[in-house]
Amino acid sequence: ETGVTQTPRHLVMGMTNKKSLKCEQHLGHNAMYWYKQSAKKPLELMFVYNFKEQTENNSVPSRFSPECPNSSHLFLHLHTLQPEDSALYLCASSHTGTRLGYTFGSGTRLTVV
Amino acid sequence: TQLLEQSPQFLSIQEGENLTVYCNSSSVFSSLQWYRQEPGEGPVLLVTVVTGGEVKKLKRLTFQFGDARKDSSLHITAAQPGDTGLYLCGETSGSRLTFGEGTQLTVNP
How many angstroms separate the most distant Cα atoms in chain A? Predict the structure, then answer.
């Protein structure tokens, strides 16, 4: 247990479904992140939130919609996904900046059928 | 965003052997972090290196930051099966952490 909790751990969804991924941290961090990890590709930064404000959207398609209601919770809303969106989605948190490192959750393994 | 190259991509060794993995860039790193990711889990921070020429040790792991801050290495002495995992280097810039593809290490008993 790292202190960053992601649910669900596994998710299978059809291309017409709507689902949400949840991330929660109680480490006192004020920055939260979504990453996508696909086979044979580096971890891809998707979104960055600082003090619940989005500060970075790394050209992510609109079928991925993040939400950060407070500094401890982060959601990723999914709709009309494609099979190529199947991947491990990792949430991380940190103090502002990166020098102290990120704490990652265990991820949600998403399969789009 | 600079491209991080990690090598080798895959490494399979026997327990007790030594190994070194590398992280390189064409640009200067502001600082560099090494993470290990085990199957079914997220990456876990091992170390942050900031100063050119810096060497840090974590038990059997030795991390080195190149003098020009464009490369880094991770050396593991007497590898154990518990060292198996994906070793990732990440370049830190502001609030962004950008990763290389990683080295998948397997240590066989």
Answer: 40
Is A66 within 8 Å of A21 (Cβ atoms)? no
Cβ neighbours, 10 Å, residue A23? 27
Nearest to B95 among A41, A55, A103 (CB): A55
Tens digit of pLDDT at every position of chain A (113 positions) = 779 999 999 999 999 999 999 999 999 999 999 999 998 788 999 999 998 888 888 889 999 999 999 999 999 999 999 999 999 999 999 998 777 899 999 999 999 99
Question: Which residues on chain B are in Cβ contact (under 8 Å) with A100?
Answer: 48
Chain A nearest-CA distance from B9, in A, is 10
Question: If you write DSSP's letter for every residue of A73-104 in order, what string do you get?
Answer: EEEEEEES--GGG-EEEEEEEESSSSTT--EE
Going by the DSSP 8-state scheme, the letter that residue B3 receives in this structure is P
Q: Does A92 touch chain B (CB under 8 A)?
A: yes
Q: How far is B98 from chain A (nearest CA, A)?
A: 7
Count chain A–chain B contacts defined by CB atoms under 8 A.
63
